[in-house]
Automatic annotation (TrEMBL):
It comes from Psylliodes chrysocephalus. GO terms for molecular function: Hsp70 protein binding; Hsp90 protein binding. PANTHER family: PARKIN COREGULATED GENE PROTEIN, PARKIN COREGULATED GENE PROTEIN PARK2 COREGULATED. This is Parkin coregulated gene protein homolog. Pfam families: ParcG.
Length: 241
């Protein structure tokens, strides 16, 4: 058993050793054997640390004025400069999905609202684009940014509901999309007996994750649940219960 006196002596000795350090050297090196040196400690791991986004094709095209979008100041919504039903979805839909990773205005506004408009009017044009949408969704969820993840999950719910067989077509891509959700699925705010207003506003990430998983199960066919359960073991079926 270590006494208080011994613990204080150990702390003072450690503090003195740190003061004697004149050079910080990398670990597992010959330099670490020299006098008056200290080994650089390993970096701290923060699993919830946000990953900054890289520059996107969506941002570049918006800055160049190459996107057929503007803003309607009367309704605070996207105004399309071309007939949305005649756009090349293979070109524009993946580009707008790349904009999900953006965190600055006006890129977030145009990317998110533009996607919802494209999904609403896309019809049969959406299904062939699914393989091109997986990587942008995966990258957006990997940022660990709460607001980016919520917007992406809401888009994913809309995507699944926007056409027949889209939910089933996404099942093979669960391995790329869902692992990022494991970290936040049970991360609810513990506010005791207080009111969590984020649940009322719909911006509680854990709740949005559970809603999205339920939508994927409902629209993903008979193989959806077993694939979700394999990747997210804590998920319980909304269809069987």
């Amino acid at each position: 058993m270590v006494t208080g006196k011994e613990a204080r002596a150990k702390r003072q000795s450690s503090k003195k050793n740190n003061q004697d350090c004149k050079i910080w050297v990398p670990p597992f090196s010959i330099q670490a054997l020299q006098k008056h040196t200290c080994v650089i400690p390993p970096p701290k791991c923060n699993v919830y640390k946000e990953i900054p986004a890289n520059n996107t094709r969506f941002r570049d095209n918006y800055n160049r004025g190459m996107l057929p979008v503007g803003i309607d100041p009367r309704a605070s919504k996207v105004s399309w400069k071309a007939d949305i039903t005649k756009l090349d979805y293979h070109y524009y839909l993946p580009m707008f999905f790349e904009g999900l990773i953006e965190t600055e205005h006006p890129y977030t506004f145009f990317a998110q609202q533009g996607i919802h408009d494209l999904l609403t009017h896309g019809g049969p044009k959406i299904f062939p684009c699914i393989p091109q949408l997986v990587i942008p969704v995966k990258d957006a969820l990997r940022t660990k940014n709460k607001y980016v993840m919520i917007a992406t999950l809401q888009v994913l719910q809309h995507l699944v509901k926007s056409g027949d067989m889209i939910g089933e077509a996404l099942v093979p891509y669960y391995r790329q999309i869902l692992p990022s959700l494991n970290l936040f699925k049970e991360k609810n705010v513990n506010c005791g007996d207080e009111i969590d207003y984020s649940q009322m506003r719909g911006d509680n990430l854990a709740d949005v994750i559970n809603e999205t998983l339920e939508v994927l199960e409902r629209y993903g066919g008979e193989d959806a649940f077993i694939n979700i359960k394999y990747l997210i073991p804590t998920y319980e079926s909304c269809m069987m219960n």
